[in-house]
Amino acid sequence: MTIMCYNQLAIGGINLLDIILDTLIDSLKMLPFLFVAFLLIELIEHKFSDKTKKVISSSGKFGPLLGGVLGAIPQCGFSVLATNLYITRIVSLGTLIAIYLSTSDEMLPILISHNVAISEIIKIISIKVIIGMIMGFIIDLVYHNNKKSDFHICEESDCDCEESIIKSSIIHTLKTISFIALITFILNAVFNYFNEDVIKNMVSQNKILTPFIASLIGLIPNCGSSVMITELYLNNVITLGSGIAGLLTGSGVALLVLFKSNKNIKENIIILSLIYFIGVISGIIINFII
């Protein structure tokens, strides 16, 4: 009976139990980072004076440097945290982009599991971090005068902010994680259906367009994208440049949080376009150099 029930959950070659489990694991990884981000935002919004807020807003000129380093930590937790901090303008756009570009997500665990040489791992991470930092500083330099402060995240939400910042943070976290879990479930199902062989055939037939395709895959807000890009590179299906292109655009589920929480759709599209453009150009340049 158990085996029969288990088999009934397998539809079209897709095992729903595995997908549900993967979705829960991916979502639970985000919980502490989301909670910390919302708690920090609540503290700044409700406990700090206006003068203190201005100091925080104007002290982020070295944000891309720190963001580039923190983003390299495995998983996409820091990119999720940074997204919420950017939406409320606690960190700059350059810092956000630096973290997005340097985010490792599942790349590092995959490289280690394949016994990749330490020198190769350091090279890949360093390239991502350096590109993230450079582009972060450039973006902050260009958009410096356009930066504005907006520390209000609760005005349109029924979250009992005045009653308890802990309760409010939990409510915001649960609302966001529910949205992430839904989209992650759908994406996990898609990744289970369109396996790596499908993507492998696609990139092997379009060598010139591979950086464009890899960067597009990286934008998929799911850890499966970084796993797929890393595996394709390790199996010599794509070049280092194309691999870097896909890994630069892979910020995990952070983009989901951005499009859900940031009401400025035009700004979200600009950020998405910036990441994609940087990924593609970086991949093409690396392919020519290395």
Description of the molecule:
It is a single chain. The protein contains 15 helices and two strands. The chain has a two-stranded antiparallel sheet with strand order 1-2. Helix 6 runs antiparallel to helix 8. The N and C termini lie far apart (57 Å). 43% of the residues are buried. The N terminus is likely disordered.
Q: In summary, what is this structure?
A:
This protein has helices at residues 2-8, 16-47, 50-58, 63-71, 77-87, 93-102, 107-113, 118-143, 165-193, 196-204, 210-218, 223-234, 240-249, 254-261, 265-289, and strands at 10-11, 14-15. It is mainly alpha-helical. Helix 9 crosses helix 14 (254-261) and helix 13 (240-249) runs antiparallel to helix 15.
Task: Chart the SSEs and their pairings.
Blueprint: H1 2-8, E1 10-11, E2 14-15, H2 16-47, H3 50-58, H4 63-71, H5 77-87, H6 93-102, H7 107-113, H8 118-143, H9 165-193, H10 196-204, H11 210-218, H12 223-234, H13 240-249, H14 254-261, H15 265-289
Antiparallel strand pairs: 1-2
Strand order of the largest sheet: 1-2
Count of extended strands: 2
- First and last CA, distance: 57 Å
What value does the Rg take, in angstroms? Answer: 20 Å
Count of runs of 4 or more consecutive helical residues: 15
Low-pLDDT windows of residues: 1-9, 145-151
Determine the strand fraction and express it as a percent band.
under 5%
Envelope shape: globular
Helix content: over 70%
Largest sheet: 2 strands, antiparallel
Mean pLDDT: 78
Structural class: mainly alpha
Order of helices and strands: HEEHHHHHHHHHHHHHH
